[in-house]
Amino acid sequence: MRVAEAGQSWFVAGLAGMCIGINAALISIITAWLSDLKMGYCSDGWWLNRQFCCWEIEGDSDGCDSWHPWSPAWAVRWIVYTIFASVFSFTAAHLVRSIAKYAAGSGISEIKCIIGGFTMKGYLGFGTFFIKSMTLPLVIASGLSVGKEGPSVHVACCIGNLVASLFSRYSRSQGKMREILTASSAAGVAVAFGSPIGGVLFSIEEMSSIFSIKTMWRSFVCALMATATLSAMNPYRSGKLVLFQVTYDRDWHFFEIIVFVILGIFGGLYGAFVVKFNLQVAAFRRKYLGSFPVSEAVLLATITALVGWFNRFIRIDMTESMSILFRECQGGGDYDNICQTSEQWTMVNSLFLATVLRIGLVIISYGCKVPAGIFVPSMAIGATFGRMIGIMVKALYRAYPRSSMFAVCQMDVQCITPGTYAFLGAAAALSGIMRLTVTVVVIMFELTGALTYILPTMIVLLVTKAVGDFLGTNGIADEMIRFNGYPFLERDDESYNVPVSRVMKRDIRTLPASGLRVRDIEDRLASTQIKGFPIVSADGTGLLVGYIERADLRHILDKAPHVQDISPDTPCSFLPDEGDQNHASLRVDIPGIAAGPAVGVDDDISMEIIETIAIPNVLKFWPWVNRTPLTVAPQLPLEVVMQLFKRMGPRVILIEDHEVLSGLVTVKDVLRFTVTEQSPARSPWDEREFEGIIEEVWTWTYGRAHAFVSLCRGFVRR
Amino acid sequence: MRVAEAGQSWFVAGLAGMCIGINAALISIITAWLSDLKMGYCSDGWWLNRQFCCWEIEGDSDGCDSWHPWSPAWAVRWIVYTIFASVFSFTAAHLVRSIAKYAAGSGISEIKCIIGGFTMKGYLGFGTFFIKSMTLPLVIASGLSVGKEGPSVHVACCIGNLVASLFSRYSRSQGKMREILTASSAAGVAVAFGSPIGGVLFSIEEMSSIFSIKTMWRSFVCALMATATLSAMNPYRSGKLVLFQVTYDRDWHFFEIIVFVILGIFGGLYGAFVVKFNLQVAAFRRKYLGSFPVSEAVLLATITALVGWFNRFIRIDMTESMSILFRECQGGGDYDNICQTSEQWTMVNSLFLATVLRIGLVIISYGCKVPAGIFVPSMAIGATFGRMIGIMVKALYRAYPRSSMFAVCQMDVQCITPGTYAFLGAAAALSGIMRLTVTVVVIMFELTGALTYILPTMIVLLVTKAVGDFLGTNGIADEMIRFNGYPFLERDDESYNVPVSRVMKRDIRTLPASGLRVRDIEDRLASTQIKGFPIVSADGTGLLVGYIERADLRHILDKAPHVQDISPDTPCSFLPDEGDQNHASLRVDIPGIAAGPAVGVDDDISMEIIETIAIPNVLKFWPWVNRTPLTVAPQLPLEVVMQLFKRMGPRVILIEDHEVLSGLVTVKDVLRFTVTEQSPARSPWDEREFEGIIEEVWTWTYGRAHAFVSLCRGFVRR
Question: Do the interacting molecules here have an ipTM over 0.90?
Answer without folding.
Answer: no
